[in-house]
Amino acid sequence: MTVTALLDGPGAEVLAAACAEYRPGRELQLVEKLRRSYDATLVTTAVTQAALRHRATAKFGPDAERMYFTPDGLEQSTRTTVSTHRAVRIAATQLDTVVDLGCGIGGDLITMARAGLRVTGVERDPETAAVARANLATFDLPGDVLVGDAQTTDLTPYDMVFADPARRADGRRVFDHNAYSPPWSFVTSLLERTACVKVAPGIPHDAIPDGVEAEWISDAGEVKEAALWSGKLYGGMPRRATLLPSQASVAEAPDAEVGPVGRYIYEPDGAVVRAGLVTAVAAAVGGWLLDPRIAYVTAAQHVPTPLASAYEVLQELPYKEKALRAWVRSNGIGTLEIKKRGVDLDPAQLRKKLAPKGAASATLIITRIDRDAVAYSCRRVADGR
Predict the structure, then answer these.
(1) What is the reported pTM?
(2) Res 324: pLDDT
(3) Which string of b and e fits 294-318 if b means at least 16 CB within 10 Å?
(4) % of the chain at pLDDT higher than 90
(5) Which of 20, 85, 204, 218 lies at a CB distance of 3.0 to 4.6 Å from 271, suitable for a disulfide?
(6) What is the spatial distance between Cα 172 and Cα 169, in angstroms, rounded to a whole number?
(7) In this model, does residue 165 exceed pLDDT 50?
(8) pLDDT classification of 384: cutoffs 50, 70, 90
(9) Long-range Cβ contact pairs of 119-127 (< 8 A, separation 24 or more)
């Protein structure tokens, strides 16, 4: 039985009951209880949907309580904060009509419609298309959802195209852009017009066509995606990092000097690193790079910035297990955060070897300068985000 069976009638009734009583880890008990009053197959579908709504809260917030999901659709959808950022940017260009190729469950359709855009979704799977249609209707939002193939859709009626190519095959995440579906050749053809294409944050810089802006987006310090903007949506710079929820954005990478460690070390946000804009952090804090190939910035003073997290350097330590273990023991460190760049180590394994035990907490930054690994005992400073 499919999700569409839950849209009205007995299906809607059992879904409401399942959502009202759903508790993680208690699915079997809930199924047994509801089967006393409702069709068994319908109950299983409703409890599955209740579980998906519970999981979806992390991405969709309160909206998840009213939306409909498929497992794949939820997994591949964008969290509302990120899709809203994109929708607002699109709406600001005065574009009107948007076609979403491969719209999935309709998460982007919702945020774009809320931004005032006239939306049409195209989805190959009829069941998923029905879910997207139901999600628009749930929030009384206008828009069409068509069953069709992205590669054969007539794009001429629309001001712009949005696309989110599938990045999964056989249930596994695909990291190579050449394995996207639709294929990368189709994506690049879309970018010859006014378009926005969502891609994985690991997209190689040299794969991005000329005249296209790549924007890496993080939310609460976690890199979520890259978006490629072309045509009337091109922002004038080839690379950009945007940090949510602060909306801080940087698109230029000025030159930066290299020098010894200062009083503070700055760890740039992941979106800044992915965009290759680390030197923008150096410019923001009046600092310099520890090493030209490593994404750490250092400075003599603390300058709060949403672009990076700051750590006060307390002590330089030998990068030797025995010395580090003695440091942990002598300082009574029980909570140890280990950060590393440019060195081959597993922080979890090193933490286990150092055996932290005590009431104190500390951050250990391990990095490489030239060919040598170095370690710094640090104190995390209040986040600038």
Answers:
(1) 0.91
(2) 96
(3) bbbbbbeebeebbbbbbbebeeebe
(4) 91
(5) 218
(6) 5
(7) yes
(8) very low
(9) 119/143, 119/144, 120/144, 120/145, 120/146, 120/158, 121/145, 121/146, 122/146, 122/147, 122/148, 122/149, 122/150, 122/153, 123/147, 123/148, 124/148, 124/149, 124/150, 127/2, 127/3, 127/4, 127/70
What does the block give as tokens for 138? 């749930």
DSSP state of 240: E
Per-residue pLDDT at 180: 82
Q: What is the pLDDT of residues 103-146, one digit of tens each?
A: 999 999 999 999 999 999 999 999 999 999 999 999 999 999 99
Q: How far apart are CA 269 and CA 154, in angstroms?
A: 39
* Cβ proximity of 141 and 112 under 8 Å: no
Nearest alpha-carbon partner for 252 in 273, 268, 237: 237
Distance CA 198, CA 107 (A): 13
Burial of 31 (0-12, 13-18, 19+ CB in 10 A): middle
Instruction: Return the closest-CA partner of residue 252 out of 267, 236, 268, 265.
Output: 236
| pLDDT computed for residue 371 by the predictor | 87
Q: Where are the beta strands (DSSP E) in the chain?
A: 97-101, 118-123, 144-147, 160-163, 168-169, 172-173, 195-199, 213-219, 222-230, 239-244, 248-250, 264-268, 288-289, 297-299, 308-317, 333-341, 360-369, 372-380
pLDDT tens-digit map of 284-304? 999 999 999 999 999 999 999
The per-residue pLDDT of the chain, averaged, comes to: 94
Distance CA 162, CA 121 (A): 9
User: Listing from the earlier edge strand, what are the strands of the sheet with 222-230?
Assistant: 144-147, 118-123, 97-101, 160-163, 195-199, 222-230, 213-219, 239-244, 248-250
